[in-house]
């Protein structure tokens, strides 16, 4: 079981934030070049498990790690199960087998099958993960949850194209909520507690709910994060997760008409967003500029030009400035 695979605990505040910043990430390209066969792939899994290397496991879950191996996937399917169960401990044997099958389906452009297999991988992982008093595999959970969200959207698009009722986004939401509960309800000691991973799951749920126009589902999650801070302080969580959370909560505040709160949260995002993440800066500004205009300030043309927002806002900014000038200029 997973319990026997986890060595001494390292404080999640340090280790997990290093992973988020990518300091101990292995290049996908380098890893892919090392893997020539399915047994090579499973050996890489085994090595990562024994080393409790969650980041390498995340890399192994990526399609790029399997792209050159799909032609070597054994047939029939029972042979793959046999290889995985003989090589890997539970639950990783089922996770690996389902991941391979999901990528085979993905390569064949069968998004519904890819989603089904990936959901099996996530459920197998969570079933064991929730029983373990450790949070060292939180990055694996986050990777599986993120891919589930992406595949659910593609699977629903496939269902719509076939004239069927889309249902996988809703199903993904239920699965992700179970992952949220595993993290949020954990009662382990602080350093081993899974609450450190709650925000990462919540952010993926936000993305899903905004994509599916289910904004009413976001408010309970915001309250849960507020309550969680009695145990894990928000400021101690990875800055990338803080930015994502505040971005969505800022958008909710904007929609609710709470402009001062929206301004504060979106300005936090703009200040702390990675300097090279130009597209993310642009997304933040698309929401922040209307707030600023409503509160009486306007962006410079230089800022609009820098982020290619002139088409969206130049005319509005010009009109607002003209109105303000007319109000301030006494009539004769």
Radius of gyration: 23 Å
Mean pLDDT: 87
Helix-strand sequence: HHHHHHHHHHHHHHHHH
Based on Cα principal axes, name the global outline. globular
Number of strands: 0
Strand content: under 5%
Structural class determined from secondary elements: mainly alpha
Helix proportion of residues, in percent? 55-70%
Instruction: Output the number of helix runs.
Output: 17
Terminal Cα span: 84 Å
**Biggest beta-sheet profile:** none
Detail the poorly predicted runs.
1-13, 19-27
Which helices and strands appear, and what pairs or packs with what?
Elements: H1 12-21, H2 28-34, H3 38-50, H4 54-61, H5 63-66, H6 77-87, H7 92-107, H8 111-129, H9 138-161, H10 168-184, H11 198-211, H12 218-228, H13 239-256, H14 259-272, H15 278-294, H16 301-306, H17 310-328
Characterization of the model:
This protein has helices at 12-21, 28-34, 38-50, 54-61, 63-66, 77-87, 92-107, 111-129, 138-161, 168-184, 198-211, 218-228, 239-256, 259-272, 278-294, 301-306, 310-328. Helix 4 (54-61) runs parallel beside helix 9. The protein has 332 residues and is mainly alpha-helical. Residues 1-13 and 19-27 have low confidence and may be disordered. It has 17 helices and no strands.
Q: Which descriptors would you attach to this protein?
A:
single chain; mainly alpha; 0% strand; 69% helix; 17 helices; 332 residues; globular
